[in-house]
Specification:
about 100 residues
Length: about 100
């Protein structure tokens, strides 16, 4: 059907393969991104005297962006590159209790 890989008729096949690979890799890439964000949050907690500004900024950011504070675990796992606001706030409050 296709004479060469560079044949223009292969474009739909290339698009289909790209979308399939993207859907397969997205959860892993998002998990890595969420891991990095949790590390960045932890660094922020260690670097400031109080986590209250972090909590305030997360709440303001959620209101401004109309963010879903607690998405379902499946939605967060598949689509979100950052931890949910509720998880970030819980981590900050836990850090405040320990310090």
């Amino acid at each position: 059907m296709f004479e060469e890989l560079s044949d223009f008729a292969n474009l739909p096949l290339l698009a289909l393969v790209s979308v399939a690979l993207s859907l397969l890799l997205m959860p892993a890439l998002n998990a890595f991104s969420r891991f990095n964000e949790r590390q960045a949050d932890r660094y922020a907690f260690e670097s400031v005297a109080s986590v209250q500004p972090f909590i305030s900024s997360m709440n303001k950011l959620a209101e401004q962006n109309l963010a879903e504070r607690k998405p379902s675990k499946w939605v967060e796992w598949f689509f979100h590159s950052h931890p949910a606001i509720s998880r970030r706030l819980a981590a900050a409050e836990e850090w405040a209790k320990r310090e």
